[in-house]
Amino acid sequence: PLYFDYCASAPLHPRALKKLMTATEACFANPSSAHQMGFAARRLIEEARDQLSGLLQVTPAEIIFTSGATESNNLAIQGALRAWRRKTGLVPHILLSEIEHSSVYQCCKFLGEEGAEVTLLPVDRNGIVSVQKVKESLKSNTALVSVMHVNNETGSLQPISEIGRLIKAQQPGVYFHVDGVQGFGKLPVAMDHIDLYTISGHKIGGPKGIGLLVKKEHVEIDPLLYGGEQENGWRPGTTNVPAILGFAAAVEAALEEREEKMEHISLLHDYVYSRLKGIPGIILNSPDIPLSSPHIINFSCIKKGITSAMMIGILEKNGIIASSQSACSSQAKQSRVLLAMTGDEATSSASIRLSFHETVKMEDAQYLTDAVERMMNRLQLMNKFELL
Ligand code: PLP
What we know:
Blueprint: E1 2-3, H1 14-26, H2 36-56, E2 63-66, H3 69-88, E3 93-97, H4 102-113, E4 117-121, H5 131-137, E5 142-146, H6 160-170, E6 175-179, E7 196-200, E8 211-215, H7 241-277, E9 282-284, E10 296-301, H8 308-317, E11 320-321, H9 336-342, H10 345-349, E12 351-355, H11 362-381, H12 384-387
Parallel strand pairs: 1-11, 3-4, 3-5, 5-6, 6-7
Antiparallel strand pairs: 2-8, 7-8, 9-10, 10-12
Helix pairs in contact: 1-7, 2-7, 3-4, 7-11
The structure holds pyridoxal-5'-phosphate.
């Protein structure tokens, strides 16, 4: 089958795979051990950290390795709120967009249940947060604002530079957290006004189970886990050396190859987007470029009674692997993100997300759109009885 779910997970980049394999074989000692082999493993981690610090334009001390973006998001948000509450003794206020990934959304929901004030920032029909809304929602007890770079269901691009600049101008003590998982390696990022920044290995050609949190030096967070002194105590637990080396190789390759890769992905996007636009019964949920990143296209079927699961099944029978929303929320009947954008239950429960990769060929994109067209023709012909 042809795979179009690269946002859920991408294959390992050959350079990452090589690093992962060689380090897995050669480097099994515990990097915290006080002997020659432990020191050697530790040195490899610090070399990877130095390399990443150059690539991300932050200091090595600002990089905390984690088990992935879910952990990075939780560490950033829960960690910052705990520190803020400990320092001020006040009830903290968090601002987040309605379309955040569940690792941010559920984390904030939990903090709300624990007593924090939580404000959800609405998005427009294109799935984009308004900078003005952020401005109006900041309060004297706001501890943190969390807005993602690129939405993982629709690709919609958030105005993170403007939001960062606004926060620093209006209330510089408020931390700005960005979930950069779907934007990193695809679009350029300026780290200037970002205090906490999350990325994940397996979305950019690195291994699963590895990610990082950039925590700028002035930012105070409390750890979520207690134990050893690894990662300066921010993230105790034996460090995964091969995964870190594979991750660093993937980040290097992702940034080196970014422009060329995105040029190709933009061509795929433009072809698929314009063809889908012409198919009766489809509404495109992703805004067009430049309001969206070209690697994601989300659409819904407007015929009553159709569900995402039905469409995924039909596409799969036609050799296409697609998804409806993020893999982390795939059990939900409806997309929270699309509901926030459209307010429409039918659209939100009959959506397909397609995501692209540099290895996808133009003929694959043609095959894909032909399959979607056939599926739509078939769905249009199905009667009420068949849909039940
Ligand atoms: N944030 C976004 C925007 C994502 O797309 C994902 C992956 O689905 C995550 C966070 C979670 O990443 P991880 O699998 O590394 O925990």
